[in-house]
Amino acid sequence: MRPDIGVLGAGAFGTALAIALAQAGKRVVLWARDVEQAAAMAAARENVARLPGAAFPDGLDVTADVAMAAQAPVLLLAVPTQTLRGLAGAHAAFLADRRLVACCKGVELGTGLLPTQVLGQVIPGAQTAVLTGPSFAADIARGKPTALTLAVEGAGGEALQAALASHNLRLYLAHDVVGAQWGGALKNVIAIAAGVVLGAGFGESARAALMTRGFAEIGRLAQSRGAQAETLWGLSGFGDLVLTCTSDKSRNFRHGQAIGRGEAPDLTQTVEGVMTAHAIAQDADPDMLPVTCMVSALLREQVSLEQAKDLLLSRPLRNERG
Ligand SMILES: NC(=O)c1ccc[n+]([C@@H]2O[C@H](COP(=O)([O-])OP(=O)(O)OC[C@H]3O[C@@H](n4cnc5c(N)ncnc54)[C@H](O)[C@@H]3O)[C@@H](O)[C@H]2O)c1
Ligand SMILES: O=P(O)(O)OC[C@H](O)CO
């Protein structure tokens, strides 16, 4: 029988979404590119590597055959942003004529493009949407209450909202696809900075200041690229910024925390904010985006932690609303 939803990418988030949707009664096929990984998940009925302890419900099938997942009319793309172009290019024939829901949060290095813009380049005419907002994979997989933004341009938003929402997964519909993606991408950069601040012992007051100024920075950049201010105040922007900057369940936060402590970050984890910081900083004005540029410089070891702090604090005093 044709699945309702295909999930491409069997990491933590793809697996969590597949579990939640199958729990809600949908027929879901989860695709992993690696044959052995797919077989192991199918046998264990669990993604031991990325989401241990979350059992697969009935209605969730696992495959390494992308054609099987792509029978579904709706495909959730849950891979790291830097790999999205490769995934879409390799399987473009299967992805055309499907509703493609980008679930990744980042900006492509080199092009500065958002996930749906990458999809539009690789698959001209692609019908895209964005699922984003404050959510840890483990929370979604365990059926904890979660509210997300589903951003859809044009027609079909309500139908998609109904198809993907469930009792525990509450979806708010939005139409500002660009704004929803900028908020989700940039909050990861600010979360790295928040982790650095706490890891270095600069204190919670400093983190609050950084989150607030970081949010102002998100607004400046995102609105200059076409985002609507109201979108940034929503789940995809402010909501996700709060979650990611305040929880050590966040990989971006933990990455920064390790750097702040002078420890080596865990490089086996997907930490979207690293490449996003570099993607933005490569042609940014540091006066407009001081935190993002400093995060990029710190990650590239162009400045020390102490230098980064002093450079940010010694900038000319300015009007808060400037
Ligand atoms: N984990 C979360 O809590 C969470 C929550 C919301 C959003 N996200 C977003 O979801 C995206 C994926 O994150 P994740 O947590 O699932 O990462 P992850 O590291 O757990 O998994 C990424 C998966 O993508 C697969 N992959 C990579 N390149 C691929 C390719 N070319 N083709 C097919 N598969 C490929 C990897 O094999 C891996 O299984 C990120 O953009 C992240 O910001 C994650
Ligand atoms: O673990 P992180 O830092 O990638 O954050 C996961 C989600 O984006 C939080 O909403």
UniProtKB/TrEMBL annotation:
It comes from the Bacteria. It catalyses: sn-glycerol 3-phosphate + NAD(+) = dihydroxyacetone phosphate + NADH + H(+); sn-glycerol 3-phosphate + NADP(+) = dihydroxyacetone phosphate + NADPH + H(+). Its main location: cytoplasm. It is found in: Cytoplasm. Sn-glycerol 3-phosphate binds at residues 105, 133, 135, 187, 240, 250-252. Keywords: Cytoplasm, Lipid biosynthesis, Lipid metabolism, NAD, NADP, Nucleotide-binding, Oxidoreductase, Phospholipid biosynthesis, Phospholipid metabolism. PROSITE patterns: NAD_G3PDH. Its EC number is 1.1.1.94. Residues 176-308 form the Glycerol-3-phosphate dehydrogenase NAD-dependent C-terminal domain. Gene3D superfamilies: N-(1-d-carboxylethyl)-l-norvaline Dehydrogenase, domain 2 (1.10.1040.10), NAD(P)-binding Rossmann-like Domain (3.40.50.720). Pathway: Membrane lipid metabolism; glycerophospholipid metabolism. Pfam families: NAD_Gly3P_dh_C, NAD_Gly3P_dh_N. It is an enzyme of class 1 (oxidoreductase). The keyword Ribosomal protein does not apply. Catalyzes the reduction of the glycolytic intermediate dihydroxyacetone phosphate (DHAP) to sn-glycerol 3-phosphate (G3P), the key precursor for phospholipid synthesis. Belongs to the NAD-dependent glycerol-3-phosphate dehydrogenase family. This is Glycerol-3-phosphate dehydrogenase [NAD(P)+]. It comes from Pararhodobacter zhoushanensis. The gene is gpsA.
